[in-house]
Amino acid sequence: MAAVEGFDPAKSGQQPMDSTGNRIPAGVWGDTTTGMGVFGSSGQLLPGGTDIVSDPAGVEGHGLGVPGVLGRSDVDPGVVGESLQSLGVLGRSEQASGILGVTFSDADGGGRGVFGSSTTGGDGVVGFVGGATGVIGNSIRGDGVLGISGSANGVVGENFSEPGDPMDPRPAGVVGRSQLGDGVSGSSMEGSGVFGLNDGARAGVWGSNCSNDPGIGVKGTSLAGTGVSAVSLIGSGLIAESVTGNGVEGSSSRGVGVLGSSLGDGFAGLFLGRVRITGTLSKGGGGFEIDHPLEPDSKYLTHSFVESPDMLNVYSGTVTTDDNGRATISLPDYFEALNEDLRYQLTVLGQFAQAIVEREVRDNQFVIATDSPRVTVSWQVTGIRHDPWAVANRIRVETEKTADEVGRYLHPDVADRPDSARLHPDPADREPPAHGGQAELARVRALLPQEQDERVEQMLQTIRGGGAIDRDALRALIAECLRHANISPRPPRTTRRDLERDWERVEATVRAIGHERGSA
Questions:
Q1: Of all helices (H) and strands (E), which one includes residue 443?
Q2: What is the pLDDT of residue 475?
Q3: Whose CB among 43, 178, 349, 353 lies 3.0–4.6 Å from 376's, allowing a Cys bridge?
Q4: 497 and 435: one domain?
Q5: pLDDT of 294-306, one tens digit each?
Q6: What tens digit of pLDDT does each residue of 48-105 get?
Q7: CA-CA distance, 112 to 394, in Å (whole number)?
């Protein structure tokens, strides 16, 4: 096939012009009203093959084993495609990718395989398919997909499936997977590293670990602040479950591993089941609380613990002396290994008699003697623990406060001190309230716009006053607040019908392209 050569107006003195007489700067110029303006091909045709097609185009290039069209430039774009009403560039392939973008720059930010932008409010890059993945980003060493925004969301993932959707029972808006690193990693200088919001009854953030080895569903780490913060207006702020591991783990090098607080009469911590503490337990008071034995439907019964400056163990019982006025009391076989500095108390029951400890504990037994036979005696023995842990962790009855603790109180309210002197302030008091309200409302109001403060305050006053609250009204308020929550702007929610309508337009374009190719 013959070669095609262009001309240089500076050398030839010729200048191509359009129909109105305007000069056209071009190395090769083709113009036609019936077919292709410029047609070029390269390579040997197969027997019976043809490279002549009927598609109308300004420029068409065909290559057999080589690129059909190749554009290069030192500083400007290699290929530019523009259209006023249709696609600027259309790439299609029977078996490979429609468009492949490659960059050979190894400098950070030096190039992009594919770069899409919009200056009028449209989307920079859109990937749209019927059943496969809309956009795939792959990288050997860098980021697979990078989303950056100056004022809106860097990356938005949305799923519009509804309950019972046959596509997937629990599809996700964003899925992150990793073999060794983080499935999803979020960081922020001022806001939340990862923020989860749910308008319904599911979890705002859900973390699970399916490994056979001990793993973590959700892990939060902070160098100075809170590792994980969870807020809920009605339900649980944080739910953590594990089949064989720990439901919740909290640790700190210098601060508090797990901190629970209550704004009102609720519990700072509630444990349904056994509780184990391997270290010391410090408390202002305590006791047992049970349903009242006589009125279990309407009352509780509460008793205080027995307190002592010593690590006391108490053993007690009753015994009746024999015909000789003797009785041997057997204690647990670990008694002497656990206790020292023993103390005894004896009380005679039912008659006047004298009772003494005739022989102190030896071989985990002691002997009681009475001046009369057949005397019933109530006995009690106390010992001070001297097991290795107790010896290494004796209770210091009186300790000096540190420099940071001087002038601060565990219970300032009962010491006639201001709440600001509290040693362990409520977490909500550590930062200024979200909208200038009371500090105790900061958690609730952190997610709400300022105009909702009065309504929230009225409801919380009703709760604190012991009155019943309209749960439906509260849920309606929460739903309204969530729609206007103080978080970064979110795009309008997509519906299935929206996506189906867009896909119909894409299918129409694809069918039109296929029809053109079939008629070629």
A1: helix 442-445
A2: 62
A3: 349
A4: yes
A5: 999 999 899 998 8
A6: 656 555 556 667 777 766 777 878 777 777 788 877 777 777 777 766 777 777 776 6
A7: 66
Residue type, 252: S
262 vs 45: CA distance, rounded Å:
81
Domain that holds residue 366: 315-387
355 and 436, same domain (yes or no):
no
Q: Is 417 exposed, middle or buried (0-12, 13-18, 19+ CB in 10 A)?
A: middle
Q: To 10 degrees, the CA torsion angle through 62, 64, 66, 70?
A: 0
* Average pLDDT of the segment spanning 247-271: 76
Integer CA distances (angstroms), 166 to 129, 163, 169, 493, in order? 18, 9, 7, 20
| Backbone phi and psi for residue 358, each to the nearest 5 degrees, phi listed first | -75, -35
Split at pLDDT 50, 70, 90, the class of 253 is: confident
Domain edge (last residue) among 351, 371, 387: 387
* 513 lies in the same domain as 447: yes
Residue-wise pLDDT for 94-152, tens only, equals 667 777 777 766 666 566 777 777 666 677 777 777 667 777 777 666 677 777 766 66
Q: Are residues 443 and 517 in the same domain?
A: yes
Instruction: Give dist(CA 249, CA 260) in Å, integer.
Output: 13
Residue 246 lies in a domain: no
The β-bridge relationship of strands 38-42 and 59-63 is parallel
Provide the token pair at 8: 């240089």
Where are the alpha helices (H) located in 290-430, listed in sequence order?
335-338, 388-392
Partner residues linked to 385 by β-bridges:
339
274: left (phi over 0), alpha (psi -120 to 50) or beta: beta
- The rounded mean pLDDT for the chain is 74
d(CA 330, CA 339): 15
pLDDT in the model for residue 66: 73
Note whether residue 75 is domain-resident.
Answer: no
- 298 in a structural domain: no
Render 400-417 in DSSP notation, one character per residue. PPPTTTTT-BS-TTTTT-
Could you tell me if residue 469 is inside a domain?
Answer: yes
Q: Who's near 420: CB < 8 A, 6+ residues apart?
A: none
Q: What DSSP state is assigned to residue 439?
A: G
pLDDT at 270 over 90: no
CA distances from 72 to 76, 104, 107 (A): 9, 14, 20
Same domain, 381 and 446: no
Query: DSSP of 201-266, one letter per residue?
Result: SS-SS------SS---S-----SSS-S-----SSS-S-----SSS-S-----SSS-SS----SSSS
Q: Is the pLDDT of residue 487 over 50?
A: no
- Count of the separate structural domains present in the chain: 2
Give Cβ neighbours of residue 390 (< 8 Å, ≥ 6 apart): 311
